[in-house]
Amino acid sequence: MRPNFQLWNERYHLDPYALTKSAILDLQTALLPEKQHAAKAVLFFLYTSGVAKEERLEIQAKTELIKAGEQIVLSADREKIIDEVEALIEKLSGQNVKIDEQHWKYESLRVAALLLHAPFDTVVMETMIDAVTLLLRWKSIPADASFILLWNLYEKALLPIYKRFFAVAEPDFWENYCALSLKVMGRYLHDAAMEYILYYEEPPGSQISVSHLERCAKLLDVALEACYLIHRLVPFITAEIDRHIYDFCTEVITKSNPQPLITYSYRLLDLSSEDFFITLPKEQINTLILKSISKLPKE
Questions:
Q1: Domains held by the chain: number
Q2: Among candidates 90, 168, 162, which has minimal Cα distance to 130?
Q3: How does pLDDT run across 129-158, given as a tens digit for each residue?
Q4: Which pLDDT does position 248 carry in this prediction?
Q5: How far apart are CA 147 and CA 153, in angstroms?
Q6: Pair (118, 139) in one structural domain
Q7: How does pLDDT run across 80-132, given as a tens digit for each residue?
C-alpha cells in the first residue's frame, strides 16, 4: 500500500489501518447527495487502486459501489470511461477557471479511479498524464490521485504485457512524467518541511510537537516514493540535458544522501519560512529521510 494513505485519517477522516471498512461505513451512512458522491468517490478509488483488495474487502467494496449506483464498476467500456474522464478534467482547463475545492478533493479521486478501472492502452496512458497535468495545476486539489496514477504507470512500465503501449508513447512522454513526479514530490516535501518548522515552534517533547514530527515522517515517505519514481524512470528521457535536471534525485536514492532533498526544499518555501528552515538543526529530518529511503523497493 502506498504511504500517502497513512495521511487519510486527516484528509478523508478514514482509519488508515482499515481504509476500506471505514469508507464503506461512510458510504452506508451518507444521507446528503454531496456526501454520498464524496463517499462513493473515495471507495471507488480504494477499490481501483488495489487498497480494497489488499485489505481483503474487494468484493464487499464492489457490492457497495453497485448498490450506491456506481454501475461503471461493471463496465469495461474504455471509450465510455475516457469520455467521462475528459468531460471531468475539461472543467479544470482554460484561463480564469474557478473550482469548488471541496468538490474536487473528491472528484480528483473519481478521475483517477476511472482511469485505473479502464482497460489499459496508449489512450488511457496518455489520458493519465493529461489528467495529472491538470490536477496538479491546482494546489488546492490533494495530490493523492496524481501520485497513485504516476505510481500505476511506473508499475505497468515494468510489466512485459504493457511494453507495446509504452513503446509508441510520444517522445516527450517520460520527460513529462518526471516533471509531474517532481511536482508531486515538491508538494509532499513542502508540507514535510512546514511540519518540521512547526515541530521546532512547539515546546520540546510536547504532544503537539511529536504529532508534527510524525506527520513530517509520513509526508517524507510519499515525497521519497515520488523521488524514487524519478530516479527509476529518468533514464527513459531521450535528451541528456533534460536527464541531468533530475541528477539530485538519483543521488538521494543511490547514495542515501538527504542533502540534495533538503537543498531542493528551500526553493519550495516562501521567504520567511525558508529563512527559518535554513537555521534549524537538520539531524531529525535527515534521519527521517534516511528511514523513508530504507522503505523504498530494493533495486
A1: 3
A2: 90
A3: 999 999 999 999 999 999 999 999 999 999
A4: 96
A5: 10
A6: yes
A7: 999 999 999 999 987 778 889 999 999 999 999 999 999 999 999 999 999 99
CB 200 within 8 A of CB 280: yes
What's the pTM?
A: 0.95
Specify the pLDDT at position 239: 84
pLDDT mean over 159-173: 93
Burial 133-168 (b: 16+ CB within 10 A, else e): bbbbeeeebbbbbbbbbbbbbbebbeeeebeebbee
On whether both 186 and 278 belong to a single domain, the answer is yes
* Amino acid occupying residue 235: P
- Decide if 26 contacts 39 (C-beta within 8 A): yes
Query: Does pLDDT of 241 surpass 90?
Result: no
Residue 299 lies in a domain: no
d(CA 141, CA 110): 13
> What 3-state DSSP class applies to 93?
coil
Give the residue ranges of DSSP H helices in 68-143: 78-89, 101-117, 122-135
Residue 132 structural domain = 77-169
Whether 262 and 178 share a structural domain:
yes
Cell numbers placing 115: 482511469
C-alpha cell of residue 251? 543521488
Please tell me the distance from the alpha carbon of residue 220 to that of residue 212, in angstroms, as a whole number. 12
- CA atoms within a 13 Å half-sphere pointing along the CA-CB vector of 270: 2
Last residue of a domain, one of 39, 55, 74: 74
